[in-house]
UniProtKB/TrEMBL annotation:
Top-rank lineage group of the source organism: Bacteria
Protein family (similarity comment): Belongs to the BshC family.
One MF term in the entry's GO annotations: ligase activity
Keywords, comma-separated and alphabetical: Ligase
Protein purpose: Involved in bacillithiol (BSH) biosynthesis. May catalyze the last step of the pathway, the addition of cysteine to glucosamine malate (GlcN-Mal) to generate BSH.
Name by which UniProt lists this protein: Putative cysteine ligase BshC
HAMAP family: BshC (MF_01867)
Organism: Fictibacillus aquaticus
Length: 543
């Protein structure tokens, strides 16, 4: 395995500046994650705050015991029971078949950073993966992309859930799920790893009731032996820890919204686009009823209600709801980081590019409650290829960096042109010109004999041109057949490197990689020892 770094331009301006350590971007956070003493200062800050450690660890034990719980998981949870124990936290939506590769890279980042931090600080640090079970955009998580016959295809899981239903309540049709899993693996192609891998995935699906269950079984199978702790934000059992914090959000709701809006305005004043849309009166809380999630707003009288007014609570009723039925409430992107901060001793937060951008608006929200934002660490970002792909690029005279940044269009053009005989187009044009000149002389001769032969001359000329074009087309067809294989190789390689023009990690599935390189693929990533510097990594594996 080889690993090297490549700077790939980040599309979001703020995130790009943050990754470059631009002082203006860094100023939107309390810690510069690259600072040598950031972790030590954050550790000292956390010692000043209390956490619901007993409730938290009891919940984490119950939840993780549903999956592939083992001694390493128990050891990690025990670290959070320790009064000095800390956590490295990151999360993702519960994607079907774990979603795109970036989900696995988030888990790998959490594990590696927790290990590094524990070694540096000499104190227990637990790796925690926050499953965003409260999220309701099912169309983002209900599918897998596969490379099939040279094109990228989307394989969706059909469902009947409404757009307001959270992932935690997305009930699986197990027959439909099993059918789709088999179809997806068929697209991957048969390898020595396929049978065992497919059986394990089908086994996990068969044990699952919801999409979050399936996601958790998959992650647990992959990383329980590494001590990764799973947490489902949409789990009613987890929400039992939250009543006092939900009441606090209700009490200071208008102030939270103002602090967030101030953050958005400050970003705008520095030339950055708003990462989240600000809505007047937004409480940043959702209400659940019959698996439907509804955003609540503050009205002029201080009450909490849905936009249409059908759901409404006064302040007292809302506090009673928070204390008595916390499972009926959930946080949005503004209040979720607060809840995370109150419940977990977050040493560092592992963030993707989009998360970095929206966390930049939350500094004043944290400060409102006397807290600082944790160091926000960019997750690891990878592109994975094998030696065969690298050799092909070398044969074509194009660097891997160039292929990743610019695609393979130039390669395809060169492959087509290099297979044409020298001066192909010039010879055809010259031959056509000479034949037409000779034909013009023949036409003149025919007209001198009899003017009635003009139409025949025109028809004869058109027929000759058609025959010449026919010959040209046949030659080009034969040339295309000669170049068909290398062009197909170029298309396949581009689908691997940059499918649909996007980074590999945002499109392709973990299971395609495991089917190709073996079930130890995640373990190989954990052994790669990459630097947490915000720079993209290219990993070359043996075929």
């Amino acid at each position: 395995m080889k690993i090297k770094e490549l700077k790939i331009p980040e599309k979001q301006l703020f995130t790009a500046d943050y990754l470059e350590n631009n002082p203006i971007a860094v100023s939107f956070f309390d810690y510069d994650y690259k600072s040598r003493d950031a972790l030590r200062r954050r550790q000292n800050e956390l010692l000043q705050h209390a956490f619901p450690r007993e409730q938290l660890t009891a919940y984490l034990t119950r939840f993780n015991q549903k999956f592939y719980y083992n001694e390493k998981t128990a050891e990690s949870i025990a670290k959070l029971r320790n009064p000095n124990g800390l956590a490295v936290v990151g999360g993702q939506q519960a994607g079907f078949l774990t979603g795109p590769l970036l989900t696995i890279y988030k888990a790998v980042s959490i594990l590696l950073y927790a290990n590094q931090a524990e070694a540096e600080l000499g104190t227990p640090v637990a790796p925690v993966f926050w499953i965003a079970g409260e999220d309701h955009d099912l169309d983002e998580i209900n599918h897998v992309f596969v490379r099939e016959n040279g094109v990228l295809k989307k394989k969706p899981l059909r469902h009947t859930s409404t757009s307001q239903s959270p992932a935690s309540s997305f009930k699986l049709d197990l027959a439909e799920v099993d059918k789709l899993i088999v179809e997806i693996f068929r697209s991957f192609g048969e390898t020595p790893y396929t049978k065992k891998l497919l059986n394990s995935v089908r086994e996990d699906a068969a044990k699952s009731t919801t999409l979050v269950d399936f996601f958790a079984f998959s992650l647990s199978r992959l990383f329980a032996a590494e001590g990764l702790i799973l947490l489902d934000s949409g789990d009613p059992d987890f929400k039992k820890i939250q009543p006092s914090y939900l009441a606090l959000i209700a009490e200071k709701n208008a102030a939270i919204d103002k602090a967030f809006t101030d953050g958005i305005e400050e970003l705008a004043s520095r030339g950055y686009a708003a990462p989240i849309e600000a809505q007047q009166g937004n409480t940043h809380l959702f209400y659940y009823e019959k698996d439907k999630r509804t955003l609540l707003y503050r009205n002029g009288e201080g009450d909490f209600s849905s936009k249409d007014g059908e759901i409404s609570f006064n302040t007292h009723e809302f506090k009673e709801l928070a204390e008595g039925s916390p499972e009926k409430l959930s946080n949005n992107v503004v209040t979720r980081p607060l809840m995370q901060e109150w419940i977990l001793p977050v040493l560092s937060f592992i963030a993707g590019p989009g998360e970095i951008a929206y966390w930049a608006s939350l500094k004043k929200v944290f400060h409102l409650f006397g807290r600082k934002m944790p160091p926000v660490v960019p997750r690891l970002s990878f592109t994975v290829i094998d030696q065969k792909a690298e050799d092909l690029l070398s044969e074509w005279g194009i660097s891997l960096e160039n292929a990743l940044l610019n695609g393979l269009d130039t390669v395809r053009v060169e492959l087509a042109n290099n297979n044409k005989p020298e001066h192909f187009d010039a010879i055809i044009n010259d031959a056509t010109k000479q034949i037409m000149e000779a034909h013009a002389n023949l036409t003149d001769l025919a007209l001198s004999i009899n003017g009635d032969l003009e139409r025949l001359g025109i028809y004869n000329k058109e027929r000759i041109l058609r025959e010449l074009k026919y010959l040209e087309n046949k030659m080009e067809h034969r040339l295309r057949k000669k170049v068909k294989l290398p062009l197909a190789e170029a298309n396949e390689l581009e689908l691997l490197l940059k499918p649909d023009g996007r980074l590999q990690e945002r499109v392709l599935s973990l299971y395609e990689m495991m089917n190709r390189y073996g079930s130890d693929f995640p373990s190989l990533l954990l052994k790669s020892e990459p630097a947490f510097n915000g720079v993209h990594k290219i990993i070359t594996l043996h075929s």
